[in-house]
């Protein structure tokens, strides 16, 4: 089995103080993909930066205190790559990938965007470049007999089943028609050619949500968004046997506004 967990930690230093360290000690994951780390490696306590039993790649953003992605792997990777060949985005702490036997695993933090601002324009530019890279990555992996798994915070709810209050968000970043169409292209066999693994295993349910605002009682009411995805090439997706959102038992026990998403594959 290959078990991969993705988690937007909403600041790794803060998460470490709230329970991430204890969660990490208990996880059975073989690979951990983190997003929104928001720290330079030297700013992290050693037991978080390089915990015993893990090989760790940190890819912080050039802009201090923003973004940042990391990969923790039980096995030492055969190859590591930070960024996806983008002049604009390779130092933005939004993508890192590693080759393990038979599979390339990546941690993605797609920009969140905000309608009517430069942040949304940045998101659109990122999506355009990244879809082209996803196609190239899939083709290159196929030529090498490898599979691909891109886990992370995609910051897009694909369908109405992926957020509780879809009616109130049709004009907001994260649920815009053009964003949803882009994700459709990522998942279209004739385009990106990838599979949304969690949705494939849970086809007829609302959610399971992965992010809840800290405002109001969103978590208690399960008024969330499913924006943390595990997106895989079809061969690997077909081997997925289990996908769970590790939702905290209570609001007080959360160490992030996101919950870890864990997928188990037969190997």
Which key phrases capture this entry?
six-stranded mixed sheet; double-stranded DNA 3'-5' DNA exonuclease activity; Exodeoxyribonuclease III; 267 residues; hydrolase; single chain; globular; Deoxyribonuclease I, Chain A
Short description, anyone?
Its cofactor is Mg(2+); Mn(2+). The protein has 267 residues and is α+β, with helices and mostly antiparallel strands.
Number of domains: 1
Output the structural class. Answer: alpha+beta
Catalogue the unreliable spans: none
Could you tell me the CATH topology label: Deoxyribonuclease I, Chain A
What count of helical segments does DSSP give? Answer: 7
Mean pLDDT over the residues: 96
Tell me the CATH superfamily: Endonuclease/exonuclease/phosphatase
Q: Largest beta sheet, briefly?
A: 6 strands, mixed
Oligomer: single chain
Question: Regarding CATH, which class?
Answer: Alpha Beta
Determine the fraction of residues in helical runs and give it as a percent range: 10-25%
Order of helices and strands: EHHEHEEEEEHEHEHEHEE
Per DSSP E runs of 2 or more residues, the count of β-strands stands at: 12
Strand order of the largest sheet: 3-4-2-1-12-11
What share of the residues does DSSP label as strand, in percent? 15-25%
Task: Calculate the terminal CA-CA distance, rounded to whole Å.
Answer: 5 Å
Please tell me how large the radius of gyration is.
17 Å
EC number: 3.1.11.2
GO biological process, one term: DNA repair
Site (Important for catalytic activity): 228
GO molecular function: double-stranded DNA 3'-5' DNA exonuclease activity; metal ion binding
